[in-house]
């Protein structure tokens, strides 16, 4: 579905055609198509345009009074007609993405077994792994996959372990890739890796549809993941394998294990890191400084916080020509125990590059008002950070004293309270704006209304939303058929997003483009990623860099109806 009026040869007729979400047009089938495809009498008389269908569907959607019912309605539409589903959402992007994705999808996932109507994607259960290859091939027969999104559902959207309900997040991510990244939905596959669940509520629920077993860990788990990745590499060697909402320990180890053998991506780590890097690049463009000039405090050292630190560190090494060791020293990470320093017990292996030496903090520890560790205010007062990032889900952690102490040490403090949902944000951006007298450069993880500047002008709060970059990162990897998703490809994408910042033209404008422009923004990101893949020799396509933009346009899937011609040997 690439041109305005593409022609498709299809092998489906009658009821089978009407029940195929890929090919169904509903009332938009022309009279000629109805006669040729056995649809006369199966549809009412009038032929509708896609515009008319979207209006009808939107009116029906508005009849549902709450978000979860709207989510269910849209899910039903996706099961019936892909073009109508994607066309409707693309016309109401800002309004409907929160319905089909976060935050509403979290509620749908938590009630998955009770809302279950029909299957979607591929369910791979560790107890049935003997038929894993057979199941994968049966589900993907006749399909050349570009994208596979998988989750083991241990850490879903802030609601934790959801067992087999994780298929919902894999499916939602796949939808965003299509909606914003232009990926053909027929070439993507959502997968849940059902390794059990430690959610006692699910285990005791007689209607739970997943494997009712405690979550498998250790060697057995690793072998299951390895078998799955091996099948992806064997049958879809040029695909992007996207890992989503794995627990923090597994997320990092899996990414490290496979990143050099296949094109893999973890949005919780790399996507969050990439969009925060882009936002930081835009902010330092305003302050006319460099990444290596910054002092970073990251409050929250889980997958997101560590992913942000690593992405910023790697970009600093790449762009400012400093050593990794020197770059690591620019970061101060805190978790529930306070500042992560050498004397803390049980420090995760992946955090060790950012551990601060104890002797650096002896005097601060003696005067600290925090119990048991060095707290956020202690760190801010001591190092005067230029960048303060929150991914802690500790609502209100960036107090007035913290923000004002930071502002004393820099002209334009860069403050990103990124925790979701909005009630868990570290500071309301309007408060941070007021406490810094309009000097702060702000971005949040959830949408917030504008803040008032001292001159009365509205300051638009940038939404540091992964969806502004990860579909483009994936699109660039897919169209270039890259053998790996390299750090420099991600940095290239982040740099292109940062270059689109409104703040670079007006320092009091938003740091990132509006979410309503996400499809166009991600196209630009995708072009930059593919160009970088070609430049560093990891792309399998034989294009020149100058060809990438035109080639990319040819690959963008658009939700438009084509003309159908019946052919027994055509597509199904």
Automatic annotation (TrEMBL):
Residues bound to (S)-malate: 420, 465
Cofactor(s) needed by this chain: Mn(2+); Mg(2+)
Binding of a divalent metal cation, residues: 244-245, 268
Keyword NAD: yes
Keywords: Metal-binding, NAD
Residue numbers annotated as active site: 101 (proton donor), 173 (proton acceptor)
Domain Malic enzyme N-terminal: 78-259
Cofactor binding note: Divalent metal cations. Prefers magnesium or manganese.
Record flagged with keyword Metal-binding: yes
GO cellular component, one term: cytosol
GO MF term set: malate dehydrogenase (decarboxylating) (NAD+) activity; metal ion binding; NAD binding
Domain Malic enzyme NAD-binding per the UniProt entry, residue ranges: 269-534
SUPFAM superfamilies associated with the record: Aminoacid dehydrogenase-like, N-terminal domain, NAD(P)-binding Rossmann-fold domains
One BP annotation, GO: malate metabolic process
Classification via Pfam families: malic, Malic_M
Family: Belongs to the malic enzymes family.
Protein name in the entry: Malic enzyme
Native organism: Marasmius oreades (fairy-ring Marasmius)
């Amino acid at each position: 579905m690439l041109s305005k009026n593409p022609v498709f040869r299809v092998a489906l007729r009658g009821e089978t055609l009407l029940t195929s979400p890929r090919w169904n047009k509903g009332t938009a089938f022309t009279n000629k198509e109805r006669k040729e495809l056995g649809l006369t009498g199966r549809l009412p008389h009038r032929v509708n345009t896609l515009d008319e269908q979207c209006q009808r569907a939107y009116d029906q959607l508005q009849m549902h009074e709450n978000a979860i019912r709207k989510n269910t309605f849209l899910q039903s539409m996706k099961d019936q007609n892909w073009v109508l589903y994607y066309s409707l959402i693309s016309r109401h992007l800002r309004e409907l993405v929160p319905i089909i994705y976060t935050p509403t999808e979290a509620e749908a996932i938590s009630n998955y077994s009770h809302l279950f109507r029909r299957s979607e994607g591929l369910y791979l259960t560790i107890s049935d792994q003997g038929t894993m290859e057979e199941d994968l091939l049966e589900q993907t027969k006749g399909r050349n996959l570009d994208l596979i999104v998988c989750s083991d559902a241990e850490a879903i959207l802030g609601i934790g372990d959801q067992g087999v309900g994780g298929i919902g997040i894999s499916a939602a991510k796949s939808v965003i890739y299509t909606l914003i990244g232009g990926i053909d939905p027929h070439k993507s596959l959502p997968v849940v890796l059902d390794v059990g669940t430690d959610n006692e509520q699910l285990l005791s629920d007689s209607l739970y549809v997943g494997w009712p077993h405690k979550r498998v860990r250790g060697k057995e788990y690793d072998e299951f993941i390895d078998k799955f990745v091996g099948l992806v590499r064997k049958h879809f060697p040029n695909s992007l394998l996207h890992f989503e909402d794995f627990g923090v320990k597994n997320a990092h180890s899996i990414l490290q294990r496979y990143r050099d053998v296949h094109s893999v991506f973890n949005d919780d780590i790399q996507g969050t890191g990439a969009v925060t890097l882009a936002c930081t690049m835009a902010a330092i463009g305003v302050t006319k400084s460099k990444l290596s000039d910054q002092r970073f405090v990251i409050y929250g050292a889980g997958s997101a916080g560590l992913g942000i630190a690593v992405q910023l560190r790697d970009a600093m090494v790449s762009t400012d020509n400093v050593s990794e060791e020197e770059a690591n020293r620019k970061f101060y990470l805190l978790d529930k125990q306070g500042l992560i320093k050498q004397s803390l017990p049980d420090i995760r292996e992946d955090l060790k590059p950012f551990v601060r030496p104890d002797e650096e903090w002896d005097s601060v520890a003696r005067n600290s008002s925090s119990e048991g560790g060095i707290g956020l205010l202690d760190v801010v007062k001591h190092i005067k950070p230029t960048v303060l990032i929150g991914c802690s889900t500790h609502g209100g952690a960036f107090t007035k004293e913290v923000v004002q102490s930071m502002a004393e040490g820099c002209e334009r403090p860069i403050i990103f309270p990124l925790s979701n949902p909005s009630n868990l944000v570290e500071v309301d951006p309007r408060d941070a704006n007021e406490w810094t007298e309009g000097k702060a450069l702000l971005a949040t993880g959830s949408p917030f209304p504008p803040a008032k500047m001292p001159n009365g002008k509205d300051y638009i709060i940038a939404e540091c939303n992964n969806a502004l970059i990860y579909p483009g990162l994936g699109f660039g990897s897919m169209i270039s058929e890259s053998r790996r998703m390299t750090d420099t490809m991600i940095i290239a994408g982040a740099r292109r997003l940062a270059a689109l910042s409104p703040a670079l033209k007006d320092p009091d404008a938003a740091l990132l483009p509006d979410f309503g422009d996400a499809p166009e923004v991600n196209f630009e990101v995708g072009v930059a990623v593919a160009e970088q893949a070609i430049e560093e020799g990891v792309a399998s396509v034989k294009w020149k860099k100058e060809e990438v933009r035109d080639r990319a346009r040819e690959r963008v899937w658009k939700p438009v109806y084509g003309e159908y011609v019946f052919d027994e040997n055509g597509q199904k």
